[in-house]
Design a protein that fits this description.
The complex is a heterodimer of chains A (about 350) and B (about 35).
Chain A lengths: L1 H28 L17 E7 L6 H9 L7 E8 L5 H5 L6 E6 L4 H11 L4 E5 L4 E2 L3 H6 L7 E11 L6 H22 L9 E5 L13 H11 L3 E13 L3 H21 L12 H28 L4 H41 L1
Parallel strand pairs in A: 1-2, 1-4, 2-3, 6-8
Antiparallel strand pairs in A: 4-7, 5-8, 6-7
Helix pairs in contact in A: 1-6, 1-9, 9-10
Chain B lengths: L1 H26 L9
Classes of the chains: A alpha/beta (about 350), B mainly alpha (about 35).
Chain lengths: ~350, ~35
Amino acid sequence: MVLTFWLCAALVAYVYVGYPALLVVWSKVRTSKTSNQAPRSDNWPSISIIIAARNEAHRLPGRLNNLLSLAYAGACQIIVVSDGSTDDTAEALRPYAGTVDFAAIDVAGKAAALNAGVAAARHDLLVFADARQTFAVDALSELARPFGDPRVGAVSGELILEQPELSGVADGVGLYWRLEKRIRELESDVDSMVGTTGAIYAVRRSLWKPLPAGTILDDVLVPMRCVMQGRRVVFNRRARAFDRVADSASEARRKRRTHAGNYQLLAIEPRLLAPWSNRLWLQYVSHKIGRLLVPFALIGLLVSSASLAGSSAAYALAFTAQCGFYLLAALGAFLELADRARTRSALSLGRSWR
Amino acid sequence: MLRRAARIAFAFVLMNYEAVAALGALLGGKEVWQRR
């Protein structure tokens, strides 16, 4: 039990403190900055923007208006792929005929929709985006800029989470997301990120390989394939997309999907776990695999400290501290529920005024 | 201050323990593609 306690404690500490600290030191020793100089005015790469959508008819007009209003000096194609939508997606896109390319496939999942989108793409750079976020006006230019460096295979932008006034969990999620972004930025400085932001990333078409059916995390598989082809994946925080922090239930579903995708990647691309084929092995294991192991380590920590509490004051203190932390989290859950109830009553009050 | 700490603790627990739920969902063959 003593060994279990210390192994679990070491794992949690390494993932959340040790690894970020290691990256800070590493980035000071070895920085691989890319040139962020703009290409000559006639030399901007042409871009195909691909949006995979399922039943997003209510969001697509706003999203397309946003994309069409962006400032970009090069050629730009917008492709929307409907993944078996049963709403009015086709109808919602009718006003954009001739401006936006539209493809529809039977329900087959996001990976199949992206494959169809890339098959319809005409340009050298592929930009992937979702229906729900919006881009800053210079987002495409900022995404394209680092590709002036031929070593760069993919570029991730920054997703800025705007915090709705009444969302309680936003505080915590925002903090978690800020830590995640800092880690990605440091990884990019050292060499490459081990994943991009799904809401805003770009990749050279020459490095694209069709995604296996059912792939959950295209935003990790695509950049890691670039890395395994010898290219860099860099972060440009000036390429910005905007979203709102959702409620805790939605955030939990999103996080579950991300974790499930990380498990799935081990089956789709087992070479990621081999240090001789993945030059980012240490970063991948520390960042992605570490996050999968932390909850099991937290359970191990709680159980081992509970069973050792009678043998030493240090373990008793560790157990008490964890109990205090989980009680605090329970209070946070209660506050979140109260916030949600308040939001619901505010919304129903708003409706009754209409 | 206490409220903020409680929310951060809740988010930390939520974000981490979803990895266990994800493994369960995958092993149980549940659909996890559906977005929020």
